[in-house]
Each structure stands twice: as structure tokens, then as C-alpha cells.
Design goal:
The protein is mainly α. It has 6 helices and 5 strands; from the N terminus they run ααββαααβββα.
Length: 318
Amino acid sequence: MFASLAQENAALKALLARSQSELAEHREALAASEEARRRLELIIDDLRRGRFGAKSEKLTPDQYHLPLEDVEIAQGVLDAAQEKAETTIKGGSTAGRSRNGNRGQLPAHLPRVERIIEPRSTQCPCGCGPMAMIGEDVSERLDVIPAQFRVLVTRRPKYACRRCSGAVAQAHAPEHIVPGGLPTEALIAQVIVAKFGDHLPFYRQAEIYARQGVVLDRATLGAWAGRACFHLQPIADHMSRRLASAERLFMDETTAPVLDPGRRRTKKGFFWAIASDDRGHGGTDPPIVLFRYAPGRGGVHAEGFLRGYLVLLRHNFS
């Protein structure tokens, strides 16, 4: 009798401890939800001030992206807190309850890494023996392998004849964009894409590389990019000649912030796009677009960009 009472007492204590733990988790979820709600209120106030406040307090169009990203982050905190609270109160798993967007089929060209999660036991609880597989649930999640630097070691063995000392054979050293330097062509391409495609300045890239123990200053990255631009210039010249032979050209400009070190701020610059795309007119040539920079959007800049094309056009039709 006393043993039964002791077991029941122990079970009640375990149940009480589990209830207290779930209550504490529920309180933490509510606290996170309240903090996210306060954050949303501050963001709304900032947006309201940027829309209706004094001119000096108004946000630029580009700055609206920052509070909108904060709204999305706060909304994610609210969703996670609500899911945690529902799990604590009702029990069970939150699998399949996500409210995140970007649903749909993941690209087919991405490699698939499969993992199979088996139950703890596949034996029938009635003692009939092993159970048979009757189906499966399949889910896909987007994963990433963080970028990792590696060292490419190139060895060039030397060979000599053991009978005479007159001949030595060795492969020639391959040509590199930076002779005797550290970077491979793939690393230089990454630096250029990050700079001009992802708008990552060299100093930010240097900070990213430093997290992996690779110390590179922005002057070095800039020198690499300059060497790559020199070697890529023939490709740009070839594209320019192809544009000059096109039947029709399209031009357009868009603003771009440009650093102004003298005033310690940015100024407005313009990227001009010169493009040719005749696919809509039955053409078979691939589309081409070249970008040129100018400090303004006046017609004088367009005439300057097209002056070389007009010379090539007269040469082609002469």
C-alpha cells in the first residue's frame, strides 16, 4: 500500500514538474510575442513619420526597404511565438503548420540529398511480426552549404634522365590573372560578382573573408578586380562591335548612388544601358546589353555613348 502511494506521489510530482516547464515555455513565448508587437508599433510609427512627418524626417524610397524588412522579421517572431504557444497548450508537433511564403516546387536542377527517418520499431504491436511499408510522406526543404575557402595546390614535377644530365622535362606554369598572386580565377569572379552584382563594397567583402581567417584588404581586392577588367576588355569591345552591327538599339538610364568622399555622402549617378534584342522581330542573334556610367541623364551623354557606334555603323555600311 505504501509502495503504491509512493509511486503515485512520484507520478504527480513528475506531472507537476512537466506542467511548470510547459507554463514557463508558454510565458517565454508570450514575452517574445509582446516584444515583437512593440517592435511592430515602433516600425509603424517610423513609417508614419516618414510619410506624414516634416521634410527633414521623411525617408527616401530606398530607406523604406529597411523598416519593411524589420516588419517581416517581427512577423516571423510572432508566428514562431504563436506556434510555440499552441504546441505548449494543445501538445503535438508544429510540422506542416508553417505560414511562410515562397511555397511551390523547388528548382529541379538543385541536387537532392535524401534522408530516411524510420520509426523506432517496425514490429507489429500485436505480435504479428514485421510490418510492411504502405506509403510515405515526402517533404522538401531548401538547404545551403556555406561558402568555404580552399587552397588550390599546383605541383609541377621535374623529370630528368638518370644516364645523362642534359635533359629536364617540366610542364610550363599556367598563366594567371595575377602572376604569382594568391587568387584563382574563380575567386576573382566571385569578388567581381559580389561587387557589381550584389553591391558589396570591397571593405565588406574583406570583413566577410576575415570571418574565415582569410585576411585581405580592400586595396588588394580592388587590384584584382582591375586586372580582371583589363583582361575582360576584349569581350566588352567585341560586344560593342556586335551592338554597332545591330539593326536597332535601345537605350535607357537608371539612377545609382555614387560615393562622394569630399562631402562624406552619396550623390546621384546614372547607369546607361545600351541593348539590342531582335528576338521579338524574328532575329536569331543573342541579346546584348552594355552599361555605361554618366553623372547625368542629359542627351549629351547619350550622344557621347553612341558616337562610337555611329562611326562603326558608317564603316559597316560603307
